[in-house]
Specification:
14 strands; five-stranded mixed barrel; two-stranded antiparallel ribbon; 7 helices; 292 residues; alpha/beta
Amino acid sequence: MQRIAESELIINSRGAIYHLDLRPEELANTVLTVGDPDRVSMVSKYFDKIEYQAQHREFVSHTGHIGKKRLTVVSTGIGTDNIDIVLNELDALVNIDFTTRTIKPQLTQLTIIRMGTSGALQADIPVDSWVASTHGLGIDNLLNFYRHEHNDEENQLLHAFSTQTQLHQRLAQPYISGASAALLKRFTEGFHHGITVTCPGFYGPQGRVLRLGLSQPELIDRLTGFSYGPHRITNFEMETAGIYGLGKMLGHSCLSLSAIVANRMQKQFSKDGNKAVEGLIQETLRIVGQTT
């Protein structure tokens, strides 16, 4: 097995991977990701016991237990550039031998669940509700730096998306990946389901106008109007497609859950987004804690 060079897999002086500052034994096989570093403690306050805590830059991690369930919650920061770091380093922690710097012969599958915030693109998805993403559709280009293939359903969805939205090729080459079906079916009651579009920014890429004009001012309307069979775009944010795409290629089981803090069709913003996020955290931990 080929050895991975020091410049490619960076391990610090305490034997931890560079950005997350975690050693392999400090990571649980069930990982909850949040964007905001301050949200890590909002999750870990429900742990019965915290074993490890780490912080490096925007990456804060707490590993502990709820009953017999061992969990790690880690902050990713914002955007798929950070997701590229987090997903690759989570995978390295379980699937690369840090001593020999080689890929392990037996690979470990992580369960990775994102708990974040998002803006709804359908009028019937109110602020303070929750969305479980059936697919992550990326217009951020991250996955296009990796060798990847789409299945037949994904190719059909991409073709329909490109045809209906007329997204110009100079902006993005869209990609799409699905959620873990096994995870998704556990998050049905109380959750809207649909495609989540992942954008490379918060303002122009999500159709917001402050002082700069947009090259595609009809983008939101085109996203909202997209449909293909039972599929529609429910919301957009900045991480889901990266998690789904990298997670699928690396062999992990992934799901993205969003608290809706804005409805772009209704021009509404939540009056208490933290309450919606807190409810999402509690419900996610309740469901995750039911498995051993």
